[in-house]
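Query structure, 110 tokens:
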């Protein structure tokens, strides 16, 4: 599993990702829309910003109320002209592509 540790109310660090193919090559995401889904009790969907389409790079920026304390599963949904697919094939330093994303969000102390 790929684990992300965050704190309730934080807006940094942003979640940076890159869509890669089966061989680890960058996938061109020109024309895609990308969203992060977290399994909160009510559906949570956060749009991503594409930062370098030809290199498959994107970022998810948090708003102050986005992060809820708990342990949540996350997945990235990619929508292109060819359809929608959901995957965890996100390249991030220290991550294993294809493994599930787990978000551990700590309660804010102060």
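Result returned for the query:
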């Amino acid at each position: 599993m790929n684990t992300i540790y965050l704190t309730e109310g934080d807006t940094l660090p942003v979640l940076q990702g890159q869509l890669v193919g089966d061989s680890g090559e960058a996938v061109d995401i020109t024309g895609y829309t990308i969203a992060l889904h977290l399994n909160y009790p009510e559906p949570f969907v956060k749009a991503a910003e594409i930062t370098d389409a030809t290199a498959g790079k994107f970022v998810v920026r948090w708003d102050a109320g986005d992060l809820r304390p708990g342990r949540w599963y996350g997945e990235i949904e990619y929508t292109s002209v060819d359809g929608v697919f959901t995957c965890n094939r996100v390249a991030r330093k220290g991550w294993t592509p294809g493994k599930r994303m787990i978000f551990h969000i700590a309660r804010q102390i102060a």
